[in-house]
Amino acid sequence: MSQISSSSPKPSGSVIEDWQPDNPEFWQQSGKRIANRNLWISVYCLLLSFCVWMLFSAVAVNLNKVGFNFTTDQLFLLTALPAVSGALLRVPYSFVIPLFGGRRWTAFSTGILLLPCLWLGFAVQNPDTSYFTFILIALLCGFAGANFASSMGNISFFFPKERQGGALGINGGLGNLGVSVMQFFAPLAISFGIFSFFGGGVQHADSGEMIWLENAAWMWVPFLTVATLAAWFGMNDLTAAKSSLKEQLPVLKRPHLWVMALLYLATFGSFIGFSAGFAMLSKTQFPDIVILRYAFFGPLLGALARSAGGMLSDRFGGIRVTLLNFIVMAIFTALLFLTLPGEGQPGSFIAFYAVFMVLFINAGLGSGSTFQMIAVIFRKQTLARVKAEGGSDEKAQHEAVTETSAALGFISAIGALGGFFIPQTFGMSLAMTGSPANAMKVFLVFYVVCVAITWLVYGRKKSA
Fold this sequence. Notes:
This protein is mainly α.
């Protein structure tokens, strides 16, 4: 790659033609500053996306308090449905950045989240609102979850390969903080009539408590508006990231795509699934505990751990970090059985909560480490394949960036399905047996399988 001379054009404007992050001189002169600006705007937009994506994890537990009459299964489904649409939409969202540009798409995909927030705020105020309406709003919230795929793919274009793990860890980890931010602030916001001027009204719970449940959704509207404007005016589109859908689709033929998708389902899928279902699960097992006072802490730890997972993987290798995480997750999933009430035992909420905090931390660490593995594996294999076919260094670099971005997005779509399967598995287990124990048995087996796959496919060969 050629060095940059003082006469070379410097990146400017919303569309950048010349982008060479792996060139040290370019990186120090202007690349680092531009990349970091795009990263921090992306983090802000992604954090708000996670707030919207997980709205029903805080809203669902309060619906029956304000006059609705939904069953436990129905409430679990509402917490799970955003993950379904989010996962499905992550597939097309995986390919949009090279087609439309990171600036344009981030602004658009953030702005459309105003729709479910505004609609949900009005819907919760009317006890006659149908369950089907809440299903539609929950599915619209899934658009927020899809933003992760395009966001991570976009940021991967801005950073040199040796910094991608840390950058993706920051973007994904701090973005994931949106879950805990929402679960911390939403219960506070519903205690005050802060949007009375906009049509918000007080609702009286059976206990006499006054609730402004619409605030859980409407509080994000001004922040989303600011984020949309920040993305449009502060981010950049890279022409170097341009590629057609035809150029990206071959990534679906790579065997490592499906192996890493399974591992990511076990890490990020666990994080988002536990985030969606933990409050409802805790309420069924320990009804005397006001769980919304504590539910935010698990997603907070997991999100912070994700950033650490990417950085640790850059230093020690993603395989080692991922393998250790799956071992710990399997052990603590087994320990969870000892904390549950049943067979005349009251169970221990403190132990239950502590075990879940460890699971959240390791799911977050594993999310960061598996993403680092994806970036390393696909870059290495694509470069080797193109060079073996006689392609130029420039072609090899272009295809490596394109396939890595597409793989990151597509694998994130598979991982998002955990947000559906985990709450639904809990709900089914509770409906069938009155206990979540059978669901945890499924998760335990899955984590053990992932330990074996990580070791057999990557650990022995040290291929990444």
